[in-house]
Amino acid sequence: MTMPPEFSGFHTRAVHAGARPDARTGSRAMPIHQTTSYVFEDAEAAAAYFNLQEYGNTYSRIMNPTVAAFEERVANLEGGVGAVAFASGLAAQSAALFTLLQPGDHVLASAALYGGTVTQFKHFLRKMSVDLDFVEPDNLSAWQGGIRDNTKLIFGETIGNPSGCVLDIAALAEVAHAAGVPLMIDNTFGTPYLCQPMTWGADIVVHSATKFMGGHGTSIGGVVTESGEFDWSNGRFPVIAEPSPAYHGLKFHETFGTFGYLMKLRAETLRDLGACMSPFNAFLLAQGIETLPLRMRQHVANAEAVASFLVDHPRVDAVHYAGLPASPYRPLVEKYLPLGAGAVFCFDLKGGREDGIKLIENLNLFSHLANVGDAKSLVIHPATTTHRQLSDAELAAGGIGPGTIRLSIGIEDADDLIADLDYALNRLGSA
Amino acid sequence: MNEQNLSQYQDPAVIQAALGRPRVAVVGLSSNELRASNFVGYYLLRNGYSVVPVNPREEEIFGLECYPSLAAIPEPVDVVDVFRDPSAVPAIAEEAVAQNAKFLWLQFGVISPEGVAIAQAGGMQCIVDRCIKIEHARYRGRMHWLGFNTEQISAQRGRE
């Protein structure tokens, strides 16, 4: 039998994955299935769907065809066996954790994480009676030494937010797998265009789809994708391998094999925590992904130009962009991020906290707000906004000083972004 | 069988040809509704296949007569889908060849180079370390309804 060619290019998959033209109507754009629920064919079909014996729609808290198209698109681009979408990146992350953790477990996480993640891990995990240690991300022996008998997860970000450190994913995967533990990576700043952590051994990849995936700052959303390769029946994860009291004794890993973790994530965790993605947001986010590779090239080119400009500016103390030639993370960038080190980075002003606030007031093209990954360039002063819940010691551990400014470089013209920064920087100290 | 050898027994063309055959014997089918084999057998039934249960410890599954072995099935089957320990596969392959079955389908983890060699020598095509339910859902079913990666890229009108 001759088969049509396999279309494997990233741009092709970004446009097409998960969204064949609608079977019944032929609609070429992805239909928005704005419905809470689905009429069953008959009683037996309803039973088969609820028993997970057949793939079927029951209720949009658990699945929805538009959301599923978005999920498949992300899974395809990350190289996962599937994905489950959530109302936000933090909802996705908490559900990913909730599915594999039990009271008494332990999590080992990078110390250089998004402030919202640090807060979530510290407080949410404590309420679940799960122990947590933060590890200096560049220190491999600290990761190794930090693993305990009850450690169930290693967690880090491809590119640390906002310190800009790059994680040695393959080395961490080796440490995790030697201990029978999965590696979970937040690839929000990397995006699957710049880095696919599963190709380096990561088992679970989470995203805030709100950022570069959606790309236009319109919709909050998150997603979890899994490789299907981790052995959840290795004795360390009875919560996934043993009969589940929350699903009439089903053994998710034995019954669904490579789909086991994701089935449990959807059929139990999403069902019970309830933070589902809306179909309209799924539509906008999936449409955003269609241009992800095009946008990322412009984001990265602009970020490199802006970072190089800042390095040479007399009012700038340091620029923490892993994409700079002199970055200590250069070897890791070449390995994991050959197309570029993303478009979010920080720089330190010589002047400290007051100058940080003043710089933002002087900018005219950068939007002052708490988000990243928009087509528009964004700026924020972490010490007084996103990271203000953190202590000075926690700030320092995450590489943030009082005069640190975070930029999310958009897809405008680099010359205009540089002109705006130059104007604002040169007005510092002029009262 | 290493990974490279395995992939030659995961050929999409062979998989789709097997899915196009109507009569599937499920060897090692369990009557326990929580076992993977039961999920798969029930799924195949609901999707229009003629399922023939094979399990010496059962008399009837899904209201269908259960046969103690492949050899005991009176009518020919097209596909022999195996949920048994790999050590049981060579004997199953011999019976499958004798039954004139066309495809030997070994489920996840059922990896038997010897069994595959016997089936191939008998003119059968083999699929190894793949789930027939997942592959059906990928090519003909609704795997995409639950956000799984079908790896299918097409601008032709989809199936329902």
Which descriptors would you attach to this protein?
heterodimer, A: 431 residues, alpha/beta, Aspartate Aminotransferase, domain 2, Aspartate Aminotransferase, domain 1, 2 domains, seven-stranded mixed sheet, five-stranded mixed sheet, 17 helices, 12 strands, B: 160 residues, Rossmann fold, five-stranded parallel sheet, two-stranded antiparallel sheet, 6 helices, 32% helix, 16% strand, globular
Written overview of the protein:
The complex is a heterodimer of chains A (431) and B (160). With 431 residues, chain A is an alpha/beta fold. Chain A has two domains: 36-288, Aspartate Aminotransferase, domain 2, CATH 3.40.640; 291-426, Aspartate Aminotransferase, domain 1 (Alpha-Beta Complex), CATH 3.90.1150. Chain A is 39% helix and 13% strand. Chain A has 17 helices and twelve strands. In chain A, strands 1-7-6-5-4-2-3 form a seven-stranded mixed beta sheet, with helices on both faces. In chain A, helix 1 runs antiparallel to helix 3 and helix 4 packs across helix 11. The longest helix of chain A is centred in the last third of the chain and has 20 residues, at 292-311. The termini of chain A are far apart. The mean pLDDT of chain A is 95. With 160 residues, chain B is of the alpha/beta class. Chain B has one domain (3-134): NAD(P)-binding Rossmann-like Domain (Rossmann fold, 3-Layer(aba) Sandwich), CATH 3.40.50. Chain B is built from six helices and seven strands. Chain B has helices at residues 3-7, 12-19, 36-46, 89-98, 113-121, 132-139; strands at 23-27, 50-54, 60-61, 64-65, 79-82, 103-106, 125-128. The longest helix of chain B has 11 residues, at 36-46. Chain B is globular and about 45 Å long. The N and C termini of chain B lie far apart (37 Å). The mean pLDDT of chain B is 95. Classes of the chains: A alpha/beta (431), B alpha/beta (160). Chains A and B meet through helix 1, helix 2, helix 3, strand 1 and helix 10 of A and helix 2 and helix 3 of B.
